[in-house]
Each structure stands twice: as C-alpha cells, then as structure tokens.
C-alpha cells in the first residue's frame, strides 16, 4: 500500500467563506499515482471545516444564514470562550459543518456523486489556514 501527503494553505480576505477545493484534491490524487484507495481531506484548524455538498450560491447563502442563527457571531459576550478571542461562534460552526471528508478513489479519480463537491468552510478567517490531504491505497 502507498500513501501520499500534501498540505496547502488558504488565506481568506473575509471572516467567513466557502471555497470549492475539489480541483485541488483531484490534483493531489493525480500526483499520488494511487488508483484505488481513500483520500482524507481535513482542516488543521478548529475554526474551519471541510465538507461535501452542492456548489450552488443560493445553498451557500442558506448555510451562512442557518449557521448564523445557530451560533451568531455577536454579541461576543454571549460566549464564555470570548474572554481572550472573539471566535466562539466559529468553533461552534465548525462543529456543525464537520472537520473532514473521506472520499473513495476509483480508477485514479475521486468517486463523488453527481453534484458532490469538496468545500473548505472558513468561520474565523483573515489569516492563513492549513488543509491536509492524505491518500492511501494502491
């Protein structure tokens, strides 16, 4: 069995953002030479996530509205965590959206459903964040 590891960095200009990273993961699969196996992709930060869903702007807006209802950014003082930082809401949003995805690799390609795309979700941006891709297989 072979393994391949790749890190890349995303630096958003806004506090929250959703970025389609499917092409980056596909390129890593190609670089790995692995034809059959699994790819794990995860954020290496506790205020961002990696998830799979549809690449549709209305849905991304709905995520933003829904997450803000569940864990509003302000008022900052509503959270005990916000004594040192002001990002408690980002930690909660990350928990809801998840840490990572695992996708099958078949014939050297991501085995995604028809509308499935891989996204990076940023909830406390404006600084560099690392994303890990780990691929194992043959």
Walkthrough of the structure:
The structure is a single chain. With 138 residues, the chain is α+β, with helices and mostly antiparallel strands. It has a single domain, classed as YjbQ-like (Jelly Rolls, Sandwich), CATH 2.60.120. 25% of the residues lie in helices and 38% in strands. The chain is built from 3 helices and 8 strands. The chain has helices at 22-32, 57-70, 88-97; strands at residues 2-11, 17-20, 37-43, 48-53, 100-106, 109-110, 117-122, 128-137. The chain has a 5-stranded antiparallel beta sheet, covered by helices on one side. The longest helix is centred in the middle third of the chain and has 14 residues, at 57-70. The protein is elongated. The model has no long low-confidence stretch (mean pLDDT 97).
Could you give a quick summary of the protein structure above?
The protein has 138 residues and is of the alpha+beta class.
